[in-house]
Amino acid sequence: MADGADGATRRARLRELLYTLRPEWQHHDIELGHSYEDGATLADGTPAKERDPLGLGHAPGARPGDRAPHAWFEHNGTRTTTHRLIEPGRFLLLTGRNGTAWPAAARRAMLGIAAYVVGSDLVCDRDWHALCEISDTGAILIRPDGHVAMRAVDDTEADALLDGAIAAAHGHAI
């Protein structure tokens, strides 16, 4: 109840908490922002995004370990989302529009990976390449739990990267 800026800030935060319940119901970054920093991913060396200290705002991304970014897609005349494409027990590979090396690498891995080319198999409602920070030959591999196992900017060494990501996701040292 102190006078001054500190007291005013504390009273405003208390009002916010009591009257809106926003911290209770709108912690998007706490609910969606969990990221695996170690293990079960093939790290790409990019730093983690800065997080909202209150946990309210969530900035989606495709850094390995992050929850896969949400996007709407058109697939065979049906509207679907990133997370609806994930099938139980299967990895999902989403490539850039010219990432033809990735589906071939997925077939060679012989694990039944669901692979789609964004821009031909799937039409995205936003700039998928910018959202994932990949080129039009890049790809992301999503684990069955919805977290990114691998992000590759382009298709250089597609087979080796995909094999390494699958090995890491299954807990094998790379």
Give structural notes.
Helix content is 29%, strand content 16%. With 174 residues, the chain is an alpha+beta fold. The protein has a single domain (33-169), classed as Glutaredoxin (3-Layer(aba) Sandwich), CATH 3.40.30.120. The strands form two sheets. The chain has a four-stranded mixed sheet, covered by helices on one side. A three-stranded antiparallel sheet has the order 2-1-5, with no helix packed on it. β1 (72-75) and β2 (78-81) form a beta hairpin. α4 (101-109) crosses α6. It is elongated and about 70 Å long. The chain starts with a helix and ends in a 5-residue tail after the last helix.
Q: Which class best fits the helix and strand makeup?
A: alpha+beta
Helical residues, percent = 25-40%
Trace the largest sheet across and list its strands. 4-3-6-7
Q: What's the number of structural domains?
A: 1
Separation, N- and C-terminal Cα atoms: 57 Å
Number of strands: 7
